[in-house]
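Quick question, first post here. What does this chain look like in 3D?
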Amino acid sequence: MIPSGFARRFYVAFRWPILFAIVGWVIGTLGYWRISDYKATLLDAAYMTFITVATIGYGEVIDLSASPGGRVFTMFIASIGILNVTYTAAKLTAFIVESQFDQVLRRHKMQDRIDSLTGHYIICGVGRVGSNVAHELEVTGRPYVAVEDAQEAVDAFRERFPNALVFHGDSSDDDALRRAGVARAAGAFAVTGDDGKNLLITLTVKQLNPAIRVVARCHEVRNMDKLKRVGADAIVSPDFTGGMRIASAMIRPTVVGFLDEMLRSDTSLRVEEVTVPGGAVELSLERVAPPSRDYIVLAVRRGDAWEFNPPAEYLLRAGDRLLAMASPEGRRQLQQRAAA
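> Answer (accepted):
Ran it through. Tokens below.
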């Protein structure tokens, strides 16, 4: 797949050389046809133009021995062809050099953007699952960096997310994860299609940043315990989850329809989780979450206990987690008030 940006740059660089070549070929063909007094075929005239411009020298298929004007015309066509070939070669060299320079410049700019991130997420693997993870992060306004070891997948990902921070690299490699800012990241997704690779990614991420949260994809149920042992905080099996979703669509159609509508909504409503930071003083729920159209508080979790539909006077403590149906703006409001 050729990126659209590459196609545009190629068109801008070579549109005039290609046009000159076509015009020159048409003029040469018509000229030789006229010189032959229209006795030669158009194919012979086009062939004569080609061997003249290409300086192949296979022999003249149109006799110019008795046509001084034809020889002058041949020198003219050859000169134009040589100049156009030289011009095209120069443009090709500049195109290659500029492309390499642009790639280096883009990498530096992207790295500067990555280095400025804190509390972002790292997506290891940008296939079907990784792309959907990226879509959810974009819709909910969360910054992320994606790492993928297949260049074709990187190109396809950039087509879908033109402004995404994504680069080609081994997502289980220490240097690639450091480049993605693993030391400053809030979480990492190990979502390649290979359980073994996801296990290695989880182990490497946890070694580089033990405090980071890792969510891993797992196909084989027997590999779940291994992922837990190397530090995965949550493990998701697409096969198991997909089966449960299919069953729910049959026996709980209204609930599933509501959740689907929420995920597709233009308002980007989601069931969000907001943690009261450590060291925070006790605050009433009314102060942290006053009535608003941007969110609805559903429950508060304190340790292993749940408080559903908590009253306005409920006191929130450090470490409590609010569950709310909220837009991205509503989530930011709750986070700011909880940290105040």
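Residues 55 and 78 are 8 Å apart (CA to CA).
The first strand starts at residue 121 and ends at 124.
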